């Protein structure tokens, strides 16, 4: 996928089955391409990929997906379908921030927040990756947002609110921002949590050339952490995949490229073409 950042969800082995379900649940959705390892799709018009990576990482609510609906009926429909063998985190109800809202994790342990609101307020992007700074990252949301603003050449701050009092006073209650075409939300957790960010939910940065890969890799791994195949963690523990925008084509056109990729940390495009 070219251009915008997009989220990736890690599965043990059921990526295609899970995304077939999501395509049935969300409108304006389709599987674009799939193989034994990667599934690319659009859910509610938003690009996603799913990865069959084995039983190493499991999703948790540190990264969830905020779904903006403009009718209560749509929220009820999505809730019923996503709740099949799922678990309630916050029940459907009226809250101070929305007249109708609920938070749950589905049978794949992927978390969804269903929010009655206006699509105009979220740049007409119905599903937004939402970062919850908790565990060892508690209280670091404001610092992380400043970091992302310094890293991304296309960054728009679309507003934030802070906790007015209590133990979290001054921490971020809610923030909305756009990076490289993708609208995201972020917050510091109101409660102490036993989890934090992991590789099960990552964000992919498709890069136009090696210069762009080098730039983002250096920025994210400075005080962050390198991993294999273009994966890394930023200083706040959020996982990113920094890849060529045409990674699928490069791997498809060169049978040896997959083995080469497995030996890499930062991706070197020229080596995938040998």
Automatic annotation (TrEMBL):
Keywords: Methyltransferase, Transferase, Ubiquinone. The keyword Methyltransferase applies. Coiled coil: none annotated. Residues 5-114, 127-243 form the PhnB-like domain. The keyword Ribonucleoprotein does not apply. GO terms for molecular function: methyltransferase activity. Pfam families: 3-dmu-9_3-mt. InterPro entries: Glyas_Bleomycin-R_OHBP_Dase, PhnB-like. SUPFAM superfamilies: Glyoxalase/Bleomycin resistance protein/Dihydroxybiphenyl dioxygenase (SSF54593). GO terms for biological process: methylation. This is 3-demethylubiquinone-9 3-methyltransferase. It comes from Sphingobacterium deserti.
């Amino acid at each position: 996928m070219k251009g915008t950042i997009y989220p990736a969800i890690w599965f043990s082995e059921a990526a295609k089955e899970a995304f077939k379900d999501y395509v049935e649940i969300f409108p304006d959705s389709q599987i674009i391409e799939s193989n034994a390892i990667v599934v690319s799709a659009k859910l509610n018009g938003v690009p996603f990929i799913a990865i069959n990576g084995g039983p190493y990482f499991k999703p948790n609510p540190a990264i969830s997906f905020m779904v903006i609906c403009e009718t209560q009926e749509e929220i009820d429909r999505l809730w019923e379908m996503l709740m099949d063998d799922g678990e309630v985190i916050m029940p459907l109800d009226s809250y101070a921030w929305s007249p109708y809202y609920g938070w749950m994790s589905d049978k794949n342990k992927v978390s969804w927040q269903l929010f009655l609101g206006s699509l105009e307020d979220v740049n007409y992007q119905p599903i937004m990756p939402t970062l919850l700074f908790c565990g060892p990252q508690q209280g670091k949301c404001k610092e992380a947002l400043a970091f992302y603003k310094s890293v991304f050449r296309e960054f728009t701050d679309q507003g934030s609110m802070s906790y007015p009092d209590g133990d979290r006073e001054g921490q971020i209650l809610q923030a909305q921002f756009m990076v490289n075409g993708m609208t995201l939300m972020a917050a510091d957790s109101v409660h102490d949590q036993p989890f934090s960010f992991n590789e099960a939910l990552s964000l992919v940065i498709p890069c136009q050339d090696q210069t762009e890969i080098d730039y983002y890799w250096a920025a994210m791994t400075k005080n962050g952490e390198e991993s294999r195949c273009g994966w890394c963690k930023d200083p706040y523990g959020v996982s990113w995949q920094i890849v060529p925008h045409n990674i699928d084509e490069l791997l498809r056109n060169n049978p040896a490229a997959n083995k080469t990729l497995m030996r890499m940390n930062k991706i070197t495009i020229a080596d995938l073409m040998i």
